[in-house]
Amino acid sequence: MVKVISIILVFGIIVFIHEFGHFLFARMNKVKVNEFSIGMGPSIATFGKKDTKYSLRLLPIGGYCMMEGQLDESDDPNAFNKKTAWQRLAILFAGPLFNFILAFILAVIVCHFSYIDPATIKEVAKDSAAEEAGLMAGDTITYLNGDRIYNFRELSLFRMTTDPKKPVQVTYDRNGESRETVVQMRYDEETGSYMFGVASDMRLASSFSEELFYGLLELRLQVKSVFMTLKTLFTGNFNKDNLSGPVGIANMMSDVIDEAEDAAEETGEGFSLVLLNIVNFVVLLSANLGVMNLLPIPALDGGRILLVLFEAVTRKRIPADKEIVITAIGAVLLILLMIFVLFNDIGKVMGR
Predict the structure, then answer these.
(1) In 10 A of CB 155, how many CB atoms?
(2) For residue range 64-123, what is the model confidence (pLDDT) as tens digits?
(3) Between the CA of residue 246 and those of 40, 123, 344, what are the distances in Å?
(4) How many CB atoms lie within 10 A of CB 352?
């Protein structure tokens, strides 16, 4: 029961923050909000204040901020469609922006109570790819194939999203001097993957400013991971098992809680460790939701932002009936994708 409540709360908080961003900016721009809803499906509870209806719905898999004139034409002077392009852009972007803000704040909290992971090598495994390339403990990796990295976990992200059999151009800092080398990752029988052969030098943050800095880097890492994963769609490395919807995410969160509880029993940290792992998971989900909603897909914030940007640049507004058709097609495609992901999630859970 605790897991179920935790999962519902996590989904609810992330969706609430996203929709509250739209709601707040709509109010700031004097747009009439017809309904602010957390959850989808049948209504559990509703109450009204002035012209806005607030709803809590049965299924904790989404929510919406329904504005006057958002999906159709309206003559109301406070309708969404009556506002300038830049006002509408601000309202549409506010949802993902609030997800990024939530992820950043929670990442700072995680950095305060846990560890940070600069891309500094603590240990180099004997006879490893890193040792052969001349890397040593104390070196700080700064670039992988020309891409700047800050977190040690970016090495793992790099391994999972690139061809591990290709040599890697590594730039690193040693005693303030920038150096370069080439690493040919080696297959590790124990882990079943290609490895650099280095260990992380995780440590506690030394100041609040460092917590803020690594909180920002954590947000950057999560955003980067989404784009690198999406990149696999176009490089032929995509695997449908990488897709996860609400069922899959709930299952992953359940695993996170189980692992945290096991670790808590070993360390004696108890509830605080479980809570910290849940917070860290929220950081990942909130950043992912922010990025995914900005993708230029009809029916998502990014798709609507693209249409408004087109209007702002060309100064020609897309007719409402055509915009509705575009949005409807996008919505149908998203629903089909959600159904596919749902059955894919169920298949993965049943096959455990």
Answers:
(1) 22
(2) 899 998 877 888 999 998 999 999 999 999 999 999 999 999 999 999 998 899 999 999
(3) 13, 38, 11
(4) 6
Structure tokens, 94 = 């506010």
The CA distance from 126 to 124, in Å, is 6
Q: 89 φ, ψ to 5°?
A: -60, -45
> Residue holding tokens 């009556």?
82
Sequence length of the chain is 352
Contact 32, 78 (CB under 8 A): yes
Give the distance from CA 251 to its chain's centroid: 17
Residues forming the active site: 19
Q: Within 13 Å and on the Cβ side, how many CA atoms surround 138? A: 5
Per residue in 139-183, pLDDT (tens digit) is 999 999 999 999 999 998 898 888 888 999 999 999 999 999 999
Question: What is the signed CA dihedral for 330, 331, 333, 337, rounded to 10 degrees?
Answer: 130
Q: Rounded distance, CA 140 to CA 174, Å?
A: 7
How far is Cα 72 from Cα 130, in angstroms, rounded to an integer?
A: 59
Question: How far, rounded to the nearest angstrom, does the alpha carbon of residue 4 sit from its chain's CA centroid?
Answer: 21
Q: Quick check: 142 and 119 in contact, CB under 8 A?
A: yes
Residues 6+ apart with CB under 8 A from 175: 138
Supply angle C-alpha 345, 347, 348, rounded to 5.
Answer: 65
> pTM of the prediction?
0.85
| Interior angle at CA 240, CA 7 and CA 97, nearest 5 | 50
Distance of CA 268 to the CA centre of its chain: 31
